[in-house]
Amino acid sequence: MRYLPLTDVDRKQMLSVIGAKSIDDLYVDVPKSAVLKGLVDLPKVQGELDVHRHMQKLAEKNTSAGRTAFFLGAGAYRHHVPSTVDHIIQRSEFLTAYTPYQPEIAQGTLQALYEFQSQVAMLLNMEVSNASMYDGSTGCAEAAMMAARVTKRKKIVFSGGVHPHYIDTARTACEALGLEVLALPAAVDDEAAVTKALGPDVAAVIVQSPNVFGTISDLQAIGDAAHGAGALMVATFTEAVAFGAIEPGGSYGADIVCGEGQSIGNALNYGGPYVGLFAVKEKYIRQMPGRVAGETVDADGKRGFVLTLSTREQHIRREKATSNICTNSGLCQLAWTIHMTLLGEAGLKQLAQLNHEKAVALADALAKVPGVEVLTKRYFNEIALKLSKPAQGVVDALAAKGVIGGIAMSRLDPKSGMDNVLIACATEMNTENDIASYAKALKEVLS
Description:
The chain is α/β, with parallel strands linked by helices. It has two domains: about 70-80 and about 345-445, Aspartate Aminotransferase, domain 1 (Alpha-Beta Complex), CATH 3.90.1150.10; about 85-340, Aspartate Aminotransferase, domain 2. The chain has helices at about 10-20, 50-60, 85-90, 90-95, 105-125, 135-150, 165-175, 190-195, 220-230, 330-365, 390-400, 410, 430-445; strands at about 70, 130, 155-160, 180-185, 200-210, 230-235, 255-260, 275-280, 295, 305, 370-375, 380-385, 405, 405-410, 420-425. The chain has a seven-stranded mixed β-sheet with strand order 2-8-7-6-5-3-4, with helices on both faces. It has a four-stranded antiparallel β-sheet with strand order 11-12-15-14. Strands 1-13 form a two-stranded parallel ribbon. Strand 9 (about 295) and strand 10 form a beta hairpin.
C-alpha cells in the first residue's frame, strides 16, 4: 500500500529489536475494556462524494455557537476573532511552516515565536515564557512535572477550584513518573483548604484564578504559604482575557503560570487545536518545557532569532529530555499573537471590561429566577449557579428551547457531589436579548 510501505518481514524485524512478540504486546498497558475488538464499523471503501455527503449530514446535527443564545465556558470561550487574524495565518509561509531548526531560513517563524513569548510574559507578569504548549491542560501537567524536578519532591496538590480536566490530564502524566496527585474536593471558594494541605513532601500547589466556578482567588496568601513550606506555587487559568481586568499569577509571586490561550485569536474549533501559555521565573528557565526562541546577532552583527536553551534531546532522544513536548501549537500561537497585537493594552482592557459587564448582567438576571442561587461572588465572566433541579437535565431542557445554558459540574466531575451546580459564561458576544432569553427559558424549565 502507498501509505503503509512496511512489509511483514519489516515489522517482524522491528518487533524483534525491541523484544516484542507481536504488535499486541505494544498495548499491554491499555485496559482491555478500551481495546477495540475487530474492525471499526465503517465501510472499507467509499467514494469521496459519498463521504462528503455523509459528513455533511453529521455536521448538520450540530448547533453552532453563532446560531443560538450561547453561554458555554469552562475552558472554551466564544469571543470575536477579527477577520484579520484568519487572513494573516492563511498566508502560505505561515500555514505550511514547520519546525524552525534552520534559523537561516526561518527568521519569520522565529520572530513570531519571539514576539509571542514577549506578549505572554507581559500578560502573565512573568520573566520568561516558552513558545508554546499544546493547550492549557497539558501545560498544567508539564507544570506539575517541572515542579517535581525543581523541588525533588513527589506530591502535587490541586486546589478544589482547578478545572477537573486539567487535574485528570496532570494525573495521567504524573502517574507515569511515580508522582502523587492530591486533588482537593471541588469548592467554589478554595483558598483556605489548599494551604492546609501543604507539607514537607509537597512539590507544588496548583491553583486556578478565575477558577472553574468563576471565582477570583487571592493568590498572595496561597503563594506565601507554599513558599514557606518549600513548595512552588503554580497558577493556572482557562480564560486569558481575564488578565485585561485582574492581576495574573505572576503578580502574586507564582513560580509557574500556565493556562489556555484559546480565547484570544482562536475560535472554539470543537475543542481544539488550542494553544497553551506557559511562563516561569527566570531562575527556572532550564527546567521549563517546550521551545524558547531567543534574540541574537548574526555574523554581520544584524539582529536575528534562534531556538535556544534546547538540546536535541528535547526532540529526538526523548528519554533524556526535560520534557516530551516536541513541537508547539505554531499556527494557533500565531493567531494569538496577531489578535493580541491588534488589541494592544487598551483594547485588551476594553474587551475585559465588556466581558465583566455581560457577566454582571447575566448574574443579575438569573438571580431573579426562582430556584436559582448565584454561588460565585467574585468573578470575571463566568459564574456558578445552584439550581433547584439537577443541572444536566436543565441544560438539556434549555437546549430544546434554543439556549445553550452552560455546563453541568456533574459532567466535568461526576464525583463532585454538585449535581445541581451549573457553570455559565457570558462574553462580549452575548446580547441583552440573549440574556433575557436565558432568564425566561430557565424560569420555564425550573417551574
